[in-house]
Amino acid sequence: MKSTTFACAAAAAFALGLTAMPASALDMTFGTYVSPTSTTFRAGSEPMLRRLEEQSNGEMKWETFTGGAMGGPKELLGNAGAGILDASGVVDIYVKASLPHSTLVSGMLIVGEDPAAMAGAMNEFQLLHCPDCLKDHEKNNVKAMGFSATGTYHLICKDEVHTAEQLRGKKVRAVGGMGRAIQSLGGTPVSITTAEMYEAMQRGQMDCATASAAWLDTYNLRDFSKSIVIDSLGSYFGIMSFVINKDVWDDLSEANQKIIKANMARVSADVVFAYAPEGAEAIKNFEAKGGKAYTFDDEMQARLAKARADEYAYTIAFGKKNGIENAEELVTTFEKLVDKWNGIMKEVGTDKEAYIQRLQEEVYDKI
Prior knowledge:
367 residues; 6-stranded mixed sheet; 12 strands; 50% helix
C-alpha cells in the first residue's frame, strides 16, 4: 500500500473553497487467480473494488491483477499475508494446511444445495461462531471477510454420463468432500484446480468435472463436453471474496474500515445471485450447440442421497482424525447455521436486496 500525498493540490483546493479532493490516496493491490470474465471477479470483486474507491471519495485506489498474475490459488493467501498484495480473493480448499477450520466445513460441498443459504451460513460461522477460524486468519496475517459460494455443482463430462455404469472408472475433477461423493457414486476423483480444468480435460487427465454450469462458458468446458447432469451435487461455499493484509487493515482509517465492512454482504450476494442465471444461460447455449442435459438414474439418486446424509458425521470423524479436537462442535454449529439460513432463504426467496439486508443484520452489524 502506497500513500500518495496531494499537499499542494489540497492547499489550492482549500484556497478555492473546494473540499472534494482527499488529502491522500492509498494505492492498493488486489489479486485473484480467476480470469477477469469469471463470475466471482466480474460480478463480485471488480464492482466491489470500484465501490470502495467511490465511497472512500478516492482515498482507496485499487489496482487489480487477474488470471494468476500475482499468484495462483495456492499462493494468494500467503502473498496477501506477506504484503506482496494488499488484498486477494482466496479459495480456502487449496490452502487446507493454513486454514484447517475453514476447510473442515467448506469441504462438505455435497450438502450445499442452496448456495445463498450456504454463503450466509459460512459468513456467520467464520466471523461470529468460529474463534479458531479467526485465529487461522491471524496466523496468516490477514483479515478475511465476504465469504461467498459458487452456483450449484453439476456433473459435466466429455461423454454421456448420467448412470452409475457410465460413471464407473471415469476420472472426475472433484475437490474436498466432493471427492468422497464421487467415489460413492462410482467415479475416480482427481484433484485439479479450476484454472487447470480446461487443459486437464483437453489432455485426458479428467473425463468429467464437478462444476458450476456457468463454467461451461467461463472456463470453456463446453469445448470438450457432451453432457451435463442437471441434478445438484451441492456447491462450494469457501470462496473468501476479500482477504486483506492485517497490517494494511490496521493502518486504514476507521472510516475506510467501515466502508469495506459495509460492502461485504453485497459482494457475497453479487456472486451468489449472478451464478444461477449465468448457469441457466450456459446450459441453454450448451444444448444449442449439441450438448445434452440429463438427470441421474435411480441408482445414482439413491447413492447421492446417502452420501449427503452421511456427510456431517463423516466430516466430524475426519476432523478428529486430523487433529481438530473440537470438530464435532464446529460441524454441529455449522449444521445449525445451515438450517437457520435455509429458513431465511424461504423468507427472502429470490429478493437479492432482502438477502443483503439479512446478511448485514445477522453478521456484519454484529462484528
